[in-house]
Each structure stands twice: as C-alpha cells, then as structure tokens.
Amino acid sequence: MTLTHRHIDARSGRTRSLVVLLHGFGSNGAAMLGLAKALSIALPDTTFLAPDAPDPAPGRPGGRMWYTIPELDGCSVEEADARLISSARMLDGFLDDQLSATGLPASTMALVGFSQGAGLACEVGPLRHDQMAGVVAIAGRMKRKHALATEVRSKPPFLILSGAEDNLLTTDEVAQTAATLSQMGIPVMKIILASVGHSISDDGLAAARDFLATALKASN
Q: Is the model's pTM score more than 0.85?
C-alpha cells in the first residue's frame, strides 16, 4: 500500500531538504499544511510532505489513524502494536520513495509528528538504516519502548515537546520516552511548555523551527 500525501514545495524553488509531517489520530495530512507553511519561513529550501495514515479513524469522518487505540475500540495492546509496526513499515517505504525521487540523502530528511504521529515518529526514526537529520515529537510518546531499545539502527537527534496542561499525555510518559531515547544513545532535548494543552503552541512551533533549521543546516 502506498501512502497518499499532500506537499508544499520549497519556497526558494530548490529542494535541498525534506520534512515529513505526521498527523494525529482522527486528522489527516491536509491538516498539517498550516504547520508546514509556518515552518517554511525559516526553511526556504525545504519541501514539506504530509502523508495520510492508512486507516480511517472510527467516529471521525475524513479522519485517519496510524494505529488502533485500545481505550477507544477495545482492541488488545498486541493488536495496536501490530498496527503501529505495519504503519511504520509503510512510512519507512514512503520515506525511501521520497528520497529516491528527489535524489537526496537520508541526512537531509526530518520527521515532525504530532500526538499519534509523534508516536509513529518515535518508532520510525531510530529504526531507519540511514540516519535522518532529526525528529520532532510533539505531544506524543514512544509506544514500544522495550522492543525499540533492542531494534535501534540509527540515532537521529530528537526534540520532544509537550504541554504541561496536556490531558492526554502525562509528564511521566514524556520523561519515559526521553529516558528511553537517551538510553539508546540518541541525543534528546525535552521541553515542557507551561500553560499548553494537547496542541502545538507558538512557543512549541518556534522551538521546532529552530531545531529543524539547525539539524537541516548541518546536513547540507
């Protein structure tokens, strides 16, 4: 299965890097294009890609999901993990296709995931054979912590952003994700944003923009 996607071309007209934006549960790639436009101001040579998750999200017309959620549909944790692994493989193939189409190396590509998309980014980033420029995980957590620790293949730097008032994600879960990445030898920067809920705030956007600008500049 090939992932459908939207994209925004590099503002400069010349693509030197790629940023892939991963939406949250019940959303879709089109919803991430506003974020792409905001980030593109500081990244004029970057083309942004926003794929749609492979499965429809129950109860969310037009929305998609990367993996099932036991609390919502009663599936088992094992079923949810299997769906996550399947989506990760599809995304991995999508990333390979985009790099091949542009002729760019993996070191010029970064992932930005929000909520469930952040969980997928945590899954895919360390498992890529060729190291990416970086990963930004916003309001999400690593799902398969123990398994990933034994499967890691590359160590792209991570920025983890979370709101102190997030009612879907605890600070302990964020800390566990950061600690697991660190134990895997992956550089991690964690920022907890005051008075922010389960969302992408202006401060979070600025932090992501600065992180990506540094990571992608180092790759060029």
A: yes
